[in-house]
Amino acid sequence: MLYGTLIIWTVIVAWFHQRARRGVSGPSLRQQIEGVVFAVIWAMVYVFQGVLFHAGVGPSVVYGIYPATAPLIVVGLAAAAYMLARQNWRLALFAMAGVVLAAFASFTGPAKVWAVMGVGVCVLLLGLSAVQYLLRRA
Fold first, then answer.
1. What Rg, from alpha-carbon coordinates, does the chain have?
2. In the predicted model, what is the mean pLDDT of residues 29-57?
């Protein structure tokens, strides 16, 4: 549910971004570099999961808590820093809310963490959508 929600959200954001840039030439070098940096950050989360497995950390952490929460914590912190640097307070707060959600969910245990993350991310995305809708109407 968590990854499905994130995939759907990514597709929708990419579609709107593409519509907004229609008639404008390709992405800038800066945008391409930013994309590569975030892809590397995301990949390293899973590389570290392999390190945890080979270090003998239990399966409840390696396959339960860590993959459910670590991507949102690590990538969320990077996204929050990026958004703060661009002075986009709304998306920085959204990213930090995701980090707090993942930190809280990590204490729910390996059996409940995926449910808490799935529902929590859904609520965060719906909240962000509602805020954006209300700001556009105003």
1. 17
2. 87
